[in-house]
Amino acid sequence: MRVIFLGPPGAGKGTQAKRTQERFRIPQLSTGDLLRAAVKAGSPLGQKARTFMDAGQLVPDDLVVALIVERMKQPDCGNGFILDGFPRTAGQAQALEAELKKAGAPIDMVINFAIDPERLIERLTGRRICPNGHGEYHIRFQPPKVEGKCDVCGEALVHRPDDHEDRIRTRMEAYTRDTEPLIGFYRSRGVLQSVDAESEIGAVTKAIDAALGAVR
Ligand code: AP5
Known about the structure:
The protein is α/β, with parallel strands linked by helices. It contains 9 helices and 7 strands, in the order E-H-E-H-H-H-E-H-E-H-E-E-H-H-E-H. The protein has helices at about 15-25, 30-40, 45-55, 60-70, 90-105, 120-125, 165-180, 180-190, 200-215; strands at about 1-5, 30, 80-85, 110-115, 125-130, 135-140, 190-195. The strands form 2 sheets. A 5-stranded parallel beta sheet has the order 2-3-1-4-7, with helices on both faces. Strands 5-6 form a two-stranded antiparallel sheet. Strand 5 and strand 6 form a beta hairpin. Helix 1 packs across helix 9, helix 2 crosses helix 3 and helix 4 packs parallel to helix 5 (about 90-105). It binds BIS(adenosine)-5'-pentaphosphate (AP5). BIS(adenosine)-5'-pentaphosphate (AP5) binds near residues 57 and 126.
């Protein structure tokens, strides 16, 4: 099953993708995580991407497309994947379609995370992440068991550099300008399913399960 999680920054895509990958046994492919790993490793791609990411701007299409196409070829994607944060522009959506057409494996469903933009600032300013990639927490909505520490590895949680209000606003503008039009694109292809992303985390998971269960 090949699925896209589409939604604005802070809508809950990453939180839900981690849950979906466990239940449906397909990997979460997050371009944000892949790019942050490249930045951490100091690779040439990471060095190019860093300036855009820290400013809350989108990384150029050619860099992101090359990264995700390479990732989709890994053996763990044989039964499908969840694309989290990709595609984000019309150019990325077209590149993805061309790639999947070659493989004869189209997208089965696009889950649109519908949420009032006013909720996103609170979600993102309160988010803390594990620097070792064990996921995201929220100081109020999803607190760790021990304050400030990852439940899985105990490492001190960090505040993402782009989770400050000015950069959140830049990211939201990029979403409205470049990504939101993809809702219409996928609706016209008959694969769009919206979920109420304002509900509490467990309720959103149930709605996604129900939508994806209908595909299997
Ligand atoms: P990326 O890492 O993809 O960030 P994003 O899309 O901005 O999404 P987020 O990770 O901020 O939010 P999310 O929807 O995953 O929410 P989460 O589950 O964490 O991208 C970062 C940057 O990389 C971009 O700005 C860009 O520079 C670059 N980039 C990445 N992909 C790119 C692409 N394709 N093209 C170009 N550039 C790209 O939840 C947020 C918080 O809310 C958490 O604290 C969580 O605990 C909490 N929460 C979640 N669900 C709920 C709920 N239902 N109720 C209450 N709280 C909740």
